[in-house]
Amino acid sequence: MADQGTAHELPPPSYDAELTEVRRGTPMGELLRRYWHPVGLVADATNTPRRVRALGEDLILFRDGTGRPGLVHARCCHRGTTLYYGKVDAKGIRCCYHGWLFDVEGHCLDQPCEPEGGRRRETVRQPWYPVQERYGLIFAYMGPPARKPILPRYECLEMMDAGEFVEPDDSSIGGGGPAIIPCNWLQHFENVVDPLHVPILHGVFSGMQFTDAMAAMPSVAFETTEFGVKVRSTRPAGNGQIFKRVTEAVLPTLRVVPNPRVAQFARVESIGWTLPIDDTSFRIYVAGRVKRTGDLGRMRSRFAGKFWGDLTEEEHRDFPGDYESQVGQGPITTHSEEHLVSSDQGIAMLRRLLRRQVRAVAEGRDPVGVSFDPNAPPVVFEASNQIQM
Amino acid sequence: MADQGTAHELPPPSYDAELTEVRRGTPMGELLRRYWHPVGLVADATNTPRRVRALGEDLILFRDGTGRPGLVHARCCHRGTTLYYGKVDAKGIRCCYHGWLFDVEGHCLDQPCEPEGGRRRETVRQPWYPVQERYGLIFAYMGPPARKPILPRYECLEMMDAGEFVEPDDSSIGGGGPAIIPCNWLQHFENVVDPLHVPILHGVFSGMQFTDAMAAMPSVAFETTEFGVKVRSTRPAGNGQIFKRVTEAVLPTLRVVPNPRVAQFARVESIGWTLPIDDTSFRIYVAGRVKRTGDLGRMRSRFAGKFWGDLTEEEHRDFPGDYESQVGQGPITTHSEEHLVSSDQGIAMLRRLLRRQVRAVAEGRDPVGVSFDPNAPPVVFEASNQIQM
Amino acid sequence: MADQGTAHELPPPSYDAELTEVRRGTPMGELLRRYWHPVGLVADATNTPRRVRALGEDLILFRDGTGRPGLVHARCCHRGTTLYYGKVDAKGIRCCYHGWLFDVEGHCLDQPCEPEGGRRRETVRQPWYPVQERYGLIFAYMGPPARKPILPRYECLEMMDAGEFVEPDDSSIGGGGPAIIPCNWLQHFENVVDPLHVPILHGVFSGMQFTDAMAAMPSVAFETTEFGVKVRSTRPAGNGQIFKRVTEAVLPTLRVVPNPRVAQFARVESIGWTLPIDDTSFRIYVAGRVKRTGDLGRMRSRFAGKFWGDLTEEEHRDFPGDYESQVGQGPITTHSEEHLVSSDQGIAMLRRLLRRQVRAVAEGRDPVGVSFDPNAPPVVFEASNQIQM
Q1: Which element (helix H / strand E) includes B133?
Q2: pLDDT tens by residue, C95-144
Q3: Which of B163, B368, C49, C239 is most buried, taking the most CB atoms under 10 A from its CB?
Q4: Do A78 and C341 touch (CB under 8 A)?
């Protein structure tokens, strides 16, 4: 009898471009551009130009002498030299090649090689994006100006417990590896609504990376919410108690995940934004309530007692974590070869929700989760670790 | 008078895709997939997953706890994470991400995140390929299941002389360089039926790499056989004796080449399989009759007294060998620019034979050299070094 | 009010292929091939084959035993192995693979694996290009043989002042960085007719790299000449004197630029040829009148007292020069995003002149600046640094 199920009959693999590609003009790229995204720490915007790559675009971040942060297209609008080599002064950033000076909104203030500093300099504009600073992060809006929403506030970062303050982090905590992770952002974002991998990947495979309470296989309920997908996991906690954990994936890219080390039974402490750098890499910015500077950094995972960057190649193989399982899906996973099952319900819900928003934008409507009301109250999440009788 | 023959008039170069490209679905790819190919040493299949790349496909080789070797598609059929990070147990290999367990034929035995380990787990199958172990090598069949031939036996590896045994080697002996060689496999395979390069490349250019008997320009006769191309080279051997050498290129990729160091006048000692890793790299597996472990490795060429890996860049230039001459043709040589002559007759014959088989497969027939008879006798080669009066 | 001028509305960028791409068969590639280009130093052609890449073609430069330099297609016309591994003898270069011997004009003199050294060897020809040696450089003509012009002589390299001789240099003096510069050649060539960047880039940004006389913003007049674009810059020089500087960009790629360190007020000392290696890299060959060997090399720029190769990444950012400003435009700048202004008049003139020549060639005419008269007098340039009352 002939062999069954061999790889010879596999059709050519393909990936779902509508959900994964992020460049300007792509369906998902335009959906993502309807929201604000963190592109750096507040401390990253200084008088030294800094390279930023976000949603496939090369940009330069700086802060002028009056303290205003600016985010401009990397190529000077005059002759294309990168403004990375520019000099920042009180009024803006000046290109190294012919000295054109641009303010944080791209206005050209000086063309020193032209008569009178450029009689028609107001007719050119350096392409720029609006930015706002909040929670220690710099957020940019890269979408159509007429649809710019408010930058949301979040209750979990506004309402402090005693002694708490908000700390930002740009090291891709939660990515399980280096700051820049070489695979498509959606592979990471989907992981947020996949609680069942935890006892396998982070338990059986790596030795328990988190707390013992996370080692048990949970009972899980999935739910599509107003602006994302919510996962309720329930595990027995001894003494007849029940450990309830709620995590949320919130559009466009928010990880609303309570501490997996379950240091406390409490509402979620932090928000992580999954920034697509381009189609095949991403990084994670986090803002969280802490009591000591560096608390977020202390959440970094260890594998066999070591940090990820200290593992040998063999140890990466023997103790795989989030980085290995997600990057191990390839630069962009080939969705045509997947087989989703009932425990992947959260992923299916998230894709459907994203796809509906992609189509809403294509049809001229606003996607979920954007607000144009400057007096909108902070967004409240249910995400938490709780213990119940 | 204007210059003649300048490069300005060269047409754009092209290569012969029908003969060179090896991916699934290409003409040559499908021809190659009608045969068994070595993809590792027997010792490579262990409880540690091992990456294998063959014919442009990424695969994982392992051996389950009962001793059965398995070769599966690298991407888990669930969500695409590579099984390189998997764990092997008695029954098969388990993906690191959600713990799906597959046996060596891709059956899904467990889905631990699903109720009852997956009530419908039998509806998914990890893509796999059948393997067999022989001559210290693991052979895989990557073609259509209904056309799977027997794995051939070879008389030269079955009939031992006194004290001999079969030893495998995966270091690309005969490639003249590293284990993985960065050019198209056909550039190497054609070299087998090109005896006239030996006194030039391996004599004049490198200093004689082989035995003195090989230094003379031979008289050569070429012949298309039932399953390949045979080359008979004749050289004077002193005292009125004649040194006769027969080498064969056998489909799909077999090098049947007696020891060029002519340690003995005898039938061929080894077979080399030229495994196309993808369109632009290959490696060579060898199995040969030896009297001492490591005899095959001791056949590695030296250049100016050094091994290839120890040469400086200048020494590679000054003492070119098989690696330099074949990789020096480019990743895939541009056949449109070639000028074959009478001494290239073996190459022309081999290409015609390959092309006929490509077309046979396209027309639904079997290519030469495959057998479906489990009782077929071992294949006998004429390849040998002989001395005659 | 919605934001104005944000990068969201940028159309997809594009570059001007007609002016930038250099491969055989492209518009600019064919224009460039109507002229002689330096491809090495005279000292580079020896009995050791040397790799040369010019206008996107891989070539081998050598010198036969009679002293004649040869430039041939890298791939042997027999089976495609690179002649980099060839051996040079009295008559030519011999391929390592099958020993075919070619003279400097590609005639096949021997096919040692063929009967009688190849009875039909005269029917094959190794693709080659004519070369000439002058000013310490080897010039090649890579265009249609019937349109081969004379190799021009230049008055500035023919008429010596007392104690002067001509020295060649291949280190890309004037490129501001390494010998091979990773961006399109036109980004560099345009820089020659852009005198206004000097006080900005080389003054304000890098600290004055040149002489104080160059620090002032000049008055500039641009002029399209018979074979290029001429720039006359005028600066006050104290004591009522005027510093006049003339630079010229001459087709196809000549930098005719008097010493920017203004060591003397005199006619131009050197010519630089901008050789396009391929579409995204170039190098500069220079020949100049000097009094001491090494004088050209001593013109290399310093940044903060250091040579370019000794700068840290931060110092490259803080002291950008020609390399940073030109490579910082990208591998090929995206012309669609430029905004040329009045001070870019030289660049606009040069592009128009180049475009007219591209079209002349396409229409079967000769471009400007080629001569077919072996008795043509040397070309005279006005380029100079002068001081006037």
Answers
A1: strand B131-134
A2: 999 999 999 999 999 999 999 999 999 999 999 999 999 999 999 999 99
A3: C49
A4: yes
